[in-house]
Amino acid sequence: MVKLKMRNSIFSRLVITFMIIIIPLYSLGIYIYGSSLRTVKSEISKSTVAQASFYLESLEKEIERIKILQYDCLNDEQLNKLAIRWEIMSEYEISQTLLQLKQRLVAIKSSSIYVNDVNVHILPISKTVSSNSGVDDIHINEYNGIYVPAGLKGAQIINYNGQLYLSTFKKYSGATKPLFTINIELNQNALKQALEQFNTYAGSGSILITPTNIIANKSQEDNSQLIQSILLSMKERDRDGTVFTKIGNKQYYVVHSNSSYLNMLLLRYFPQEFILKPLENFKTWAWVFSIAAILIIIIYSFSTYKFMHQPLNELVKSFRKIENGDLKVFISHDSNNEFGYLYKCFNDMVKNLNMLIDQVYNQKILMQKAELKHLQSQINPHFLYNSFFMINTMARIGDENLVPFTKHLGEYFRFVTRNSMDNLSLEEEINHAKVYTEIQLMRFSKRIQIHFGECPNMYKDLKVPRLILQPIIENAFEHGLEKKKNGGLLLVNFEGNERELRIVVEDNGFDITDSELEKLQNSLEDNGLEIETTGTLNIHRRIRLVFGEESGLIISRSVIGGLKAVLKIVLQKE
Question: Residues 401-416: pLDDT tens digits?
Fold first, then answer.
């Protein structure tokens, strides 16, 4: 019985066809969702980067304006008088000039919230004028320590004692040190307050990094791990962009913008859940779309299973019962669709089949049994004639083997004439063949050797037709070994596995011609020829009647010189 596999069923093919249709549509939806998601992410990234870049550009312009005021102060009349003409000036003039200079420094400080203090260190008079503290003795450490390193470009912001300065000086030819320096201290608190404007979400922050300093709206200790992680995740620091980084179990969205003029890097970081909040609707609709697609697939599969697969399966099961010989099958139904019509036709077919079974099937079985008995009966006279001739010969010459010969002959004919059953065990058939070989050994004495193999235990109880092995051995004696004066050899071997058994009979008799071998093979293959059904053809037909068309007798040339006959028995599935 051939079982329908699930992958070959109509139901599975319908579902696969539907999946082939729905999967591209679902993939298109996923692609549209992904494209929209990437677009929104890109717009968010552009917006946040633009904000950071705008802040740095504004800071650049402000620092540049402060530096212009600083450079303009280099040419201040009062400052230059104090540095160059202080020796010819009276104390009063010096005092008034210092006061006027302080007022200008205060004006510079007041011009920008990013200026914390403006001071001028005048070396010739050993005075320092500050916008915050006024006139004081020169702060020699600041005068010597605050200077622009070689190669520093852009705004030239200097870090001194943790503070950021803009510094410039005036130096005359021949002097080893500047006459005076103008230092503007930047207000880091103002920078921090400016960074606060970006902290729109809880857990967010902004960091301004210079080569020598870090300005953040939180303590440096709170940001050290975050800064390190951000800098490691950034591929290109000199370009604006965004990155994602993880600190502990929390994901951060980081915007970075660089200013080559200020030599500063601005970092803005946000918890990822806040920055991706606008994308939640996209995810919600994506889940809705996915669930809807799954529901459609489930509903379609269930409908197909209920309205097509189940009725078809019921019909297939009923056909399988008929295939197994159950002719009492009836499909009860109340449907008026196409399957209802098929069920009605099936029930009518089974009814008609039951009516015809006695006329066709049983008649065929009886004819096969009659033919089988007819084929069996044809074997008995063939050996009987030869036996009588042998007894006559042995009696005439007074052969001492006459008694055991007649005993074996009696056992032989008792077996042949027993008609109580059509089939018997293979072990009994083999024992009968051995009795026949004993009879032939007595006849041919020492001219022939016979080697009988052992039958596999699993096949000893196999039911086979009577007289299928002995005639093959008899054929080997008559046509192959009978004329050999010595050295005759007959081999009977058994080869079996779980599916089939092969009984191999070989002899080293006189060579058979190719034409004779071809004629013998053709007689086995053409069952339609009206020829005498004796010998090998007799056995071939009987085996096929019982074990099917794959079984039978196979004739070929033996490697030991004579004929090789293979009796092939293919086991039928239950």
Answer: 788 888 888 888 787 7
CB distance 564 to 556 below 8 Å: yes
Q: Return residue ranges of the chain for CATH 3.30.565.10.
A: 378-570
Rounded Cα gap, residues 501 and 566, in angstroms? 10
Q: Could you tell me how far CA 116 lies from the centroid of its own chain?
A: 65
Q: Which superfamily is assigned to 378-570 in CATH? A: Histidine kinase-like ATPase, C-terminal domain (3.30.565.10)
Q: Which of 93-97, 319-323, 485-489 has the lowest mean pLDDT?
A: 319-323
What does the pLDDT read at residue 427? Answer: 92
Give the model's pLDDT for residue 531.
Answer: 46
Strands 448-452 and 488-496: parallel
pLDDT score for 220:
45
Q: What pLDDT band is residue 569 in, cutting at 50, 70 and 90?
A: very high
Which uninterrupted H or E stretch holds 186?
Answer: strand 180-186
| CB neighbourhood size of 227 (10 A) | 18
Q: How far apart are CA 369 and CA 365, in angstroms?
A: 6
Query: What per-residue confidence (pLDDT) applies to 9?
Result: 63
pTM of the entire predicted model: 0.46
CA angle 428, 434, 436 (to 5 degrees): 110
| Separation of alpha carbons 505 and 493, rounded Å | 7
Residue with tokens 């929209």: 36
Detail the DSSP E strand segments found in 220-260: 241-247, 250-259
Residue spans of beta strands (DSSP E) within 415-519: 423-425, 448-452, 463-465, 488-496, 500-507
Two tokens at 81? Answer: 């008088």
Single-letter residue type at 153 = K
Q: How far is Cα 437 from Cα 441, in angstroms, rounded to an integer?
A: 6
For the chain, the residue count is 574
Q: Are 466 and 373 in contact (CB under 8 A)?
A: no
Q: Which of 490, 481, 466 is nearest to 539 (CA)?
A: 466
- pLDDT tens digits, one per residue of 485-505: 788 899 999 998 888 999 999
Q: Around Cβ 76, how many Cβ atoms within 10 Å?
A: 18
pLDDT for the residue 218: 57
Q: How confident is the model at residue 175 (pLDDT cuts 50, 70, 90)?
A: low
pLDDT band at 567 (very low <50, low <70, confident <90, very high): very high
* Tokens 């549209």 belong to residue: 32
Q: Which of 1, 5, 14, 4 is nearest to 301 (CA)?
A: 14
